[in-house]
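CHAIN AND CONFORMATION:
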Amino acid sequence: MRINKFLSETGITSRRGADKFIEAGRVTINGKAAELGSKVSPGDEVRVDGELIEQPAEEYVYIKLNKPAGITSTTERHIEGNIIDFVGHPLRIFHVGRLDKESEGLILLTNDGDIVNEILRAENEHEKEYIVTVDKPVTDEFLERMAEGVEILGTRTLPAVTERAGRNRFRITLKQGLNRQIRRMCAALGYEVRALRRVRIMNIRLNGLKTGEWRDLSEEERTRLFSELGYTPKR
C-alpha cells in the first residue's frame, strides 16, 4: 500500500500529515528516504524520525475527549501537555482537527486516517457547535453580524447560526474551520473571547462527558457518524 496510507493506518498521523512527514524527509523505507507515492510491502521496515513503525493496528478506535484548556492538539510528544500523552491510549491515535490550546471541549481522536479526511474536508461543511464567553454584553447586532459572516484572513466567513446563551455568552454553529476563526471573528467586531468550548461535531456531543474525560464513541454514535459521512471503515 502507499506509504501515506500505511502511516495513517498505524495511527501515526492522517494521510495529509503523512505527506508532510515524507516531504520533510522524516520517513524511511528499508533505510532509504520515502517519496510521495512510495509503496510499502509486507516485511518492509518503515521508520519515522528513526523510530521503527509497527504494522497497523488490528482494529480502528474512535474516541471523544472533553479537552481541558492548556492541552495542545498535537501528536508531537516532545511538546509538554500534548493531547496524545494526556489521553494515554495504548494504541497510536491522533486528533481529528484542532482546538486551540486555550480552548476546551469536544475533540475526536482515532487511528483511522481515512475518516479524518472525510470529516475535515472543507467542501463537506460539517457542523461544529461552540459556546463562547466574551468580555462584554452580547448584542443583537453582534449576533446578526457573526451569523452573516465576518471579514477575516482575507475572506468572508460562511453564514453561521448564532443564539444568545447569557449576558456575555452565545452559541455559534460553524460549517468551516479557519485558523482561530471564532476568536478572529469576535476581535473583528470589537469583542475579546474569554472562554471557548466546543460542544458538538456533527452528531457527536459531549453529553455529560466531564472535562478531561474521554470514551469510545457508542455504536449509535459511530453508525450515525458513518452514515452522515457516507463512509465505511476498511476494517
